[in-house]
């Protein structure tokens, strides 16, 4: 895949899937712009153009002034895993997850869509979860907000198809990232999680990074409005 001379904005790149994607795109020679609350040491080593950004706060008018006039791709990685019984999830918790997963993506897309239109062929990649389509106990909040992300994906894909902006969504299962650390922090937990997948392992950040780079690339130029499971078969197989 060729990314030379392509400008890519990666939101939430300091760790996990975002960091793995940053490493991959950097190796593919993309002009990479990364945005998150803090620039992690691992991200700083890549030498990307870093923009401080807290997506849970109103976006400043100047937040993306340092971006080039044309963007070829945007990836929105911030997410949450709030696993609790439904009766223990307060409305404020739902609201917080919605602000991070949905409204954060909305305000980023609204701020950069004019730059995407100038590319004459751009791609947006969002993230859902296998739990949005496959019912899972204790996943009420994350399943609800990620289902909204899937709706956002399809609506934006329809609205901007005429501008040649593709919008797709990746739906992972449990992935070995810092966000999921408490779910995989013992050999017993890791083994149990692996066995729940038909492929007998949990996802790795690189699995998601490879799919992300494909969806950003010209190789996926006829794909839009899709929610693509990268879940080891969990959502479809028994």
From TrEMBL:
<feature type="domain" description="Ketoreductase">
    <location>
        <begin position="6"/>
        <end position="188"/>
    </location>
</feature>
<dbReference type="InterPro" id="IPR051122">
    <property type="entry name" value="SDR_DHRS6-like"/>
</dbReference>
<protein>
    <submittedName>
        <fullName>SDR family oxidoreductase</fullName>
    </submittedName>
</protein>
<keyword id="KW-0560">Oxidoreductase</keyword>
<dbReference type="InterPro" id="IPR002347">
    <property type="entry name" value="SDR_fam"/>
</dbReference>
<comment type="similarity">
    <text>Belongs to the short-chain dehydrogenases/reductases (SDR) family.</text>
</comment>
<dbReference type="InterPro" id="IPR057326">
    <property type="entry name" value="KR_dom"/>
</dbReference>
<dbReference type="Pfam" id="PF13561">
    <property type="entry name" value="adh_short_C2"/>
</dbReference>
